[in-house]
Amino acid sequence: MIAARATFPWPPSGLSPNGSQGNFHGKARLASAYKARCWLLLREKGKAIRPLPEGAAVARVIVTYCPPPRVSRYDFDNMGKRMKQAFDALAEAIGVDDAEWPVMVLQRGERCKAGAVIVEVEVAG
Fold first, then answer.
1. With the C-alpha atoms ordered 41, 46, 49, 51, is the resulting torsion angle positive or negative?
2. pLDDT per residue over 47-100, tens digit each?
3. What is the rounded distance in angstroms from the CA atom of residue 34 to the CA atom of residue 41?
4. What is residue 20's predicted lDDT score, i.e. its pLDDT?
5. DSSP characters for 32-97?
6. Is 125 within 8 Å of 1 (Cβ atoms)?
7. CATH of the domain at 47
8. pTM
9. Range of 62's domain?
10. Per its record, what are the GO molecular function terms (predicted)?
Protein backbone atom coordinates (compact mmCIF):
# COMPACT_ATOMS: atom_id res chain seq x y z
CA MET A 1 0.00 0.00 0.00
CA ILE A 2 1.35 3.43 -0.94
CA ALA A 3 1.39 5.56 2.20
CA ALA A 4 3.06 8.65 0.75
CA ARG A 5 3.77 10.04 -2.70
CA ALA A 6 5.85 13.12 -3.38
CA THR A 7 7.02 14.84 -6.55
CA PHE A 8 10.29 16.70 -6.16
CA PRO A 9 11.95 19.10 -8.59
CA TRP A 10 14.86 17.75 -10.61
CA PRO A 11 17.92 18.20 -8.37
CA PRO A 12 20.51 20.82 -9.31
CA SER A 13 23.62 19.50 -11.05
CA GLY A 14 25.71 21.25 -8.39
CA LEU A 15 24.62 18.55 -5.91
CA SER A 16 26.43 15.87 -7.90
CA PRO A 17 29.28 14.30 -5.92
CA ASN A 18 31.47 15.51 -8.79
CA GLY A 19 29.95 18.98 -8.68
CA SER A 20 31.71 20.89 -5.91
CA GLN A 21 35.02 21.30 -7.72
CA GLY A 22 36.51 22.74 -4.54
CA ASN A 23 33.56 25.02 -3.75
CA PHE A 24 32.29 23.07 -0.76
CA HIS A 25 30.54 26.06 0.84
CA GLY A 26 28.61 26.75 -2.36
CA LYS A 27 27.58 23.11 -2.59
CA ALA A 28 26.47 23.14 1.06
CA ARG A 29 24.33 26.25 0.45
CA LEU A 30 22.80 24.63 -2.63
CA ALA A 31 22.07 21.43 -0.67
CA SER A 32 20.44 23.39 2.14
CA ALA A 33 18.29 25.37 -0.30
CA TYR A 34 17.19 22.21 -2.15
CA LYS A 35 16.23 20.47 1.11
CA ALA A 36 14.23 23.54 2.22
CA ARG A 37 12.44 23.62 -1.15
CA CYS A 38 11.62 19.90 -0.89
CA TRP A 39 10.42 20.33 2.70
CA LEU A 40 8.08 23.15 1.65
CA LEU A 41 6.67 20.98 -1.14
CA LEU A 42 5.99 18.22 1.39
CA ARG A 43 4.15 20.71 3.62
CA GLU A 44 2.15 22.34 0.81
CA LYS A 45 -1.42 23.02 1.83
CA GLY A 46 -3.78 20.28 0.74
CA LYS A 47 -0.96 17.89 -0.19
CA ALA A 48 0.94 17.68 3.08
CA ILE A 49 2.74 14.40 3.73
CA ARG A 50 1.91 13.14 7.20
CA PRO A 51 3.93 10.91 9.52
CA LEU A 52 3.26 7.21 9.07
CA PRO A 53 0.94 5.63 11.64
CA GLU A 54 2.52 4.30 14.83
CA GLY A 55 4.14 0.92 14.16
CA ALA A 56 3.96 1.20 10.36
CA ALA A 57 7.07 -0.08 8.64
CA VAL A 58 8.36 1.09 5.28
CA ALA A 59 8.40 -1.91 2.92
CA ARG A 60 10.06 -0.14 -0.01
CA VAL A 61 10.57 3.22 -1.62
CA ILE A 62 10.07 3.59 -5.37
CA VAL A 63 11.99 6.43 -7.03
CA THR A 64 11.12 7.43 -10.61
CA TYR A 65 13.45 9.88 -12.35
CA CYS A 66 11.72 11.97 -15.04
CA PRO A 67 14.49 14.09 -16.55
CA PRO A 68 14.02 17.44 -18.25
CA PRO A 69 14.66 17.55 -22.02
CA ARG A 70 18.07 19.21 -21.59
CA VAL A 71 19.49 16.23 -19.65
CA SER A 72 20.97 13.77 -22.10
CA ARG A 73 22.34 11.21 -19.63
CA TYR A 74 22.36 10.47 -15.93
CA ASP A 75 23.29 7.50 -13.82
CA PHE A 76 21.48 6.20 -10.77
CA ASP A 77 24.53 6.46 -8.53
CA ASN A 78 24.93 10.22 -9.00
CA MET A 79 21.18 10.82 -8.96
CA GLY A 80 20.86 9.07 -5.60
CA LYS A 81 23.52 11.35 -4.17
CA ARG A 82 21.93 14.44 -5.70
CA MET A 83 18.60 13.45 -4.10
CA LYS A 84 19.97 13.03 -0.55
CA GLN A 85 18.38 16.25 0.70
CA ALA A 86 14.98 15.32 -0.77
CA PHE A 87 15.17 11.86 0.82
CA ASP A 88 16.09 13.46 4.15
CA ALA A 89 13.14 15.87 3.92
CA LEU A 90 10.78 12.98 3.10
CA ALA A 91 12.17 10.89 5.97
CA GLU A 92 11.50 13.76 8.38
CA ALA A 93 7.97 14.22 7.01
CA ILE A 94 6.97 10.54 7.35
CA GLY A 95 8.83 10.08 10.63
CA VAL A 96 10.99 7.17 9.46
CA ASP A 97 14.76 7.62 9.08
CA ASP A 98 15.87 6.81 5.54
CA ALA A 99 18.50 4.48 7.05
CA GLU A 100 15.53 2.23 7.91
CA TRP A 101 14.16 2.03 4.36
CA PRO A 102 14.88 -1.60 3.47
CA VAL A 103 14.46 -1.47 -0.32
CA MET A 104 14.74 1.34 -2.87
CA VAL A 105 13.58 0.70 -6.41
CA LEU A 106 15.10 3.11 -8.95
CA GLN A 107 13.50 3.54 -12.34
CA ARG A 108 13.59 5.84 -15.32
CA GLY A 109 10.40 7.66 -16.20
CA GLU A 110 9.27 9.77 -19.12
CA ARG A 111 10.90 13.13 -19.74
CA CYS A 112 8.90 16.08 -18.49
CA LYS A 113 9.19 19.82 -19.07
CA ALA A 114 11.03 20.89 -15.90
CA GLY A 115 12.14 17.45 -14.75
CA ALA A 116 10.86 15.74 -11.63
CA VAL A 117 11.58 12.91 -9.26
CA ILE A 118 8.55 10.97 -8.03
CA VAL A 119 9.00 9.11 -4.76
CA GLU A 120 6.44 6.63 -3.43
CA VAL A 121 6.66 5.09 0.03
CA GLU A 122 5.02 1.70 0.44
CA VAL A 123 4.26 0.28 3.87
CA ALA A 124 4.02 -3.36 4.83
CA GLY A 125 0.67 -4.90 5.41
1. positive
2. 789 999 988 999 999 999 999 999 888 888 889 999 999 999 999 999 999 999
3. 11
4. 58
5. HHHHHHHHHHHT-TTT---PPPTT--EEEEEEEEE--TT-----HHHHHHHTHHHHHHHHHHHT--
6. yes
7. 3.30.1330.70
8. 0.91
9. 2-123
10. magnesium ion binding
